[in-house]
């Protein structure tokens, strides 16, 4: 569908300057960012890179004026937008966060996109044309009255971006804007952003771990150094050609220097071939607010999850992948068909996982939600990792051993005493995976397990999961990460939009060889 051309008067791109700027979160011994000197010209398109935990999101939050006050942390140096502090420039800045859930404000799609415009006192007659154009730009083809609670994670990302584009800010800040989008959606959203900033004249700053998505459309790359300051800064081609290998070693995703992946044994040699969980003509759905019956989002599903194998669950946003994953994990009841746990997994509990107690699920099915914060319960990273082992009744020494090993393996040991909610997006994701691994379940159900990871933490996570597969653990992962699929998956299940009136969804399935070759 062609995008209608428009735009009112162009806005003036904002200028960003930093002089010795830094920020230390309250309760942390080390600053998230320090010694930052930066000058971004109006209208410039800048890609900000850096290893996980380098302070990229902290910088974005500071530019948007939402870091907080003196009680939330300590600021050094100076950070300005058009010569003013960010807190005095909020109408000039539009921010899309890593977590799109946190930016959904209102109950209906149209109202949510209009919210920012209304707060900026945009004339009423201008708001709704902006809303319609922004939704078209990001490819969110839904009625204005569609409930935001019914959106998938990827659709919420598009919604958040539409809300920012409708405001037409002078500075557009995007923090991993394509992290949970399907491949077509990545290109669609990126191009929508480019059309918007080109037409408006806005300055663009985008954080993205995967360089390939943006390298040909930005003017400049800035790489933050976790030790403070800037690791590299310059025109895109110059930085990638002169510094590519060094940046890859530091954890930046450089297309010419991909991370190493573990050698996987053929699927037929997986230790323990027993089926743990099987679905027969399964239908899945969720019960909307104030309704008694689930709205079916996918049906006709047949699959079997075997011990020692990894299954990738893929497909476009909104096809029901997360709903299927929660159903397989025993957290949602099936909307139809059969879902059966075998004795190898159930161990006498009965064949229906959704009827098991939470304590029973701990050592059998471990679930990582799409939004890491939805599963955080404790006030520190170490306490968060201890919850599962303690609930299983493990001795104190074994609890400590498991927690310390995971902290070290997933590069979280320096954050052991930090509040989980203050971590970066990638650190939150690794913590959410670690909390599940701490109970050593037979089946792992992971929703976007690799988002927000630099190349080093991505490779470590893949190696850790490969080791678990070798011990007989089964893995089902909802993912748009094709490198993850190629490195780990033995089978692929793809949900595709369908035409049936009952669910609007159909299913296709196929097998993959461990190295990413199509299996016969």
TrEMBL record:
PROSITE patterns to which the protein is assigned, alphabetical: ABC_TRANSPORTER_1 (PS00211), ABC_TRANSPORTER_2 (PS50893)
Entry's family note: Belongs to the ABC transporter superfamily.
Domain of life: Bacteria
InterPro entries in UniProt: AAA+_ATPase, ABC_transporter-like_ATP-bd, ABC_transporter-like_CS, ABC_transpr_CbiO/EcfA_su, ECF_ABC_transporter_ATP-bd, P-loop_NTPase
Domain ABC transporter: 11-252, 277-519
Presence of the UniProt keyword Transport in the record: yes
Protein name per UniProt: ABC transporter ATP-binding protein
Pfam families: ABC_tran (PF00005)
GO molecular function, one term: ATPase-coupled transmembrane transporter activity
GO cellular component: ATP-binding cassette (ABC) transporter complex
UniProt cross-references to SMART domains, sorted A to Z: AAA
Entry keywords, A to Z: ATP-binding, Nucleotide-binding, Transport
């Amino acid at each position: 569908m062609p995008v209608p051309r428009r735009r009112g008067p162009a806005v003036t791109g904002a200028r960003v300057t930093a002089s010795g700027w830094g920020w230390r979160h309250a309760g942390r011994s080390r600053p998230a960012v320090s010694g930052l000197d930066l000058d971004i010209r109006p209208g410039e398109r800048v890609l900000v890179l850096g290893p996980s935990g380098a302070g990229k999101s902290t910088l974005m939050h500071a530019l948007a004026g939402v870091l907080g006050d003196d009680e939330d942390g300590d600021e050094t140096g100076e950070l300005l937008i058009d010569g003013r502090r960010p807190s005095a420039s909020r109408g000039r800045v539009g921010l899309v966060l890593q977590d799109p859930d946190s930016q959904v404000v209102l109950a209906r799609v149209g109202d949510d996109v209009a919210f920012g415009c209304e707060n900026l006192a945009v004339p009423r007659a201008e708001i709704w044309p902006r809303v319609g154009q922004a939704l078209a730009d990001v490819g969110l083809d839904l009625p204005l009255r569609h409930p935001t609670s019914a959106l998938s994670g990827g659709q919420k990302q598009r919604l958040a971006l539409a809300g920012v584009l409708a405001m037409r800010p002078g500075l557009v800040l995007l923090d991993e804007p394509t992290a949970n989008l399907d491949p077509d959606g990545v290109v669609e959203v990126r191009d929508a952003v480019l059309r918007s900033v080109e037409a408006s004249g806005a300055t663009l700053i985008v954080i993205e771990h995967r360089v390939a998505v943006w390298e040909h459309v930005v003017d400049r790359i800035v790489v933050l150094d976790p030790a403070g300051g800037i690791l590299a800064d310059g025109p895109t081609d110059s930085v990638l050609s002169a510094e590519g290998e060094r940046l890859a070693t530091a954890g930046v995703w450089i297309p010419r220097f991909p991370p190493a992946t573990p050698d996987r044994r053929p699927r037929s040699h997986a230790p323990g071939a027993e089926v743990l969980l099987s679905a027969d003509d399964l239908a899945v759905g969720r019960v909307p607010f104030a309704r008694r019956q689930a709205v079916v989002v996918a049906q006709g599903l047949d699959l079997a999850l075997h011990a020692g194998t990894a299954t990738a669950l893929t497909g476009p946003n909104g096809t029901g992948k997360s709903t299927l994953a929660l159903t397989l994990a025993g957290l949602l009841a099936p909307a139809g068909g059969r879902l059966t746990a075998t004795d190898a997994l159930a161990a006498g509990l009965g064949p229906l996982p959704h009827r098991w107690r939470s304590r029973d699920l701990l050592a059998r099915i471990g679930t990582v939600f799409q939004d890491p914060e939805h599963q955080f319960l404790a006030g520190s990273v170490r306490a968060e990792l201890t919850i599962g082992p303690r609930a299983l009744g493990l001795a104190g020494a074994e609890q400590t051993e498991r927690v310390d090993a995971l902290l070290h393996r997933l590069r979280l040991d320096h954050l052991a005493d930090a509040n989980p909610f203050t971590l970066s997006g990638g650190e939150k994701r690794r913590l959410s995976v670690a909390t599940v691994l701490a109970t050593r379940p037979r089946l792992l159900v992971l929703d976007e397990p690799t988002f927000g990871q630099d190349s080093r933490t991505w490779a470590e996570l893949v190696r850790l999961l490969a080791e678990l597969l070798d011990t007989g653990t089964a893995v089902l992962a909802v993912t748009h990460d094709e490198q993850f699929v190629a490195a780990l998956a033995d089978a692929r299940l793809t949900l595709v939009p369908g035409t049936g009136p009952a669910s609007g969804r159909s299913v296709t399935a196929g097998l993959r060889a461990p190295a990413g070759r199509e299996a016969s």
